[in-house]
Amino acid sequence: MRRVLILSAMAVLAACSPKAKTGAEDKYAGLEDEILAWHKQIQTSDKACLSKSDGTGCQGFEVGCKGERELTAIDKAKGVTAKLVVAMSWEGWDAARSEYRTQSGFSEFTKVDGGWMRNPTGPVNLSTCVSA
């Protein structure tokens, strides 16, 4: 079951991926791996995810949106070649209520020198992926 959820999440991530190209290199190369790493980080550090001893404290991870952010002159001067926000939601176990409850996270991914960096960011509108 867990493997099916992970494979489903990977399929959703691939389907939602921006496809813009810059020259011969994919502008978003490596992004999916970074989103999966964020997913794994949530599973291993979020209180709700760790609340059940059988490893099922969190389930139903889903990328809600990905939205490209405009590069500023400062970004370009720093060597930033891509910047976007990603919203992810999941169900985390609420031990006090003995039920799963919806949770969400928002991160800004920035590509510099071919590598991605992730920083938490504020909530975004899931239909436009623009800051709420």
Proportion of residues in β-strands: 35-45%
Tell me the number of structural domains: 1
Which class do the helix and strand fractions yield?
Answer: alpha+beta
Oligomer: single chain
- Proportion of helical residues: 25-40%
Low-confidence stretches: 1-15, 19-24
Spatial shape: elongated
The count of β-strands is 6
In N-to-C order, the SSE pattern is: HEEHEHEEE
- Roughly how many Å apart are the termini? 34 Å
Q: What Rg, in angstroms, do the CA atoms define?
A: 16 Å
Mean pLDDT: 84
Largest sheet: 4 strands, antiparallel
Number of helices: 3
The main sheet orders its strands as: 3-4-5-6
Would you write up a description of this structure?
The structure is a single chain. The N and C termini lie far apart (34 Å). This protein has one domain. Strands 3-4-5-6 form a four-stranded antiparallel β-sheet. Strands 1-2 form a two-stranded antiparallel ribbon. Strand 4 (80-94) and strand 5 form a beta hairpin. It has three helices and six strands; from the N terminus they run αββαβαβββ. It is elongated, with a radius of gyration of 16 Å. It has 132 residues and is α+β, with helices and mostly antiparallel strands.
